[in-house]
Amino acid sequence: MTKSPAPLDRRPYLPLMLASGVVIVLDSIIDWLVGSFPFVVSSVEWRFGFVGVFGTRVGPILIAELIMVAALIGLGSRVALRWVGFLHLASTVLIALATISFLLDGLQLQSGVSNHARPVFGLASLRAFGALVLLGWLTGWLGVVLLKRAGPKVAARSSQVLVGDTVPDR
Questions:
Q1: Are 146 and 84 in contact (CB under 8 A)?
Q2: 85 Cβ neighbours under 8 A, 6+ residues apart
Q3: At 20, is the pLDDT very low, low, confident or very high (cuts 50, 70, 90)?
Q4: What pLDDT does 4 receive?
Q5: Which residues contact 73 (CB under 8 A, 6 or more apart)?
Q6: What is the pTM of this model?
Q7: Who wins on pLDDT, 3 or 86?
Q8: DSSP 8-state assignment for residue 116
Q9: Left if phi > 0, otherwise alpha if psi is -120 to 50, otherwise beta: which for 167?
C-alpha cells in the first residue's frame, strides 16, 4: 500500500505573491511616470499621451492585481482587505476621470490628425480607451469583492458576541 503525499501548505507563499504583485504594479507605474517626464499638464497632446500610454500598461497591472487579491484573500487579514478594497474604489474614480479626459482630449486632437493617419490614431485610441475601461471596471469590481470579503467591522461583530451568546444571522 502506497502512502499519498502530504498536502502542500501554500500559505507561506502568499506573502511572496503579494510582494510580487506590488512590485509589478509599482514597476509599471514608475516606468509610466518616468517615460512621461517632463510633465506638461497644460498640453492636450501630453495629457492624451500620458493617459494613452497608461492604457498600454494595463495587462501587467491586471495580472498583478489578481495575484495580490488572491494573496490577500488567502492571508485573510480583514483590515488589509478593507484598506485595499477602499484603495481599489478610489482608484476606480481616478481611472474613470482619466478615461473621460482621454476621450475628450482624443476628440479634440482628432481634428489635427492627417487623413492618412486617422485610422491608426483611431485604432490606437480605441485600444487604450478599451484597456482603461477594462481596468476601471475590474478595479471597481475587485474593490467591492474585497470589501465584501472583509466582512463587517470586527468591533461590531465582537460587540454582538459580548451582548448575546450567539451572533445573529445576516
A1: yes
A2: 142, 143, 144, 145, 146, 147, 149, 150
A3: very high
A4: 73
A5: 81, 146, 149
A6: 0.76
A7: 86
A8: G
A9: beta
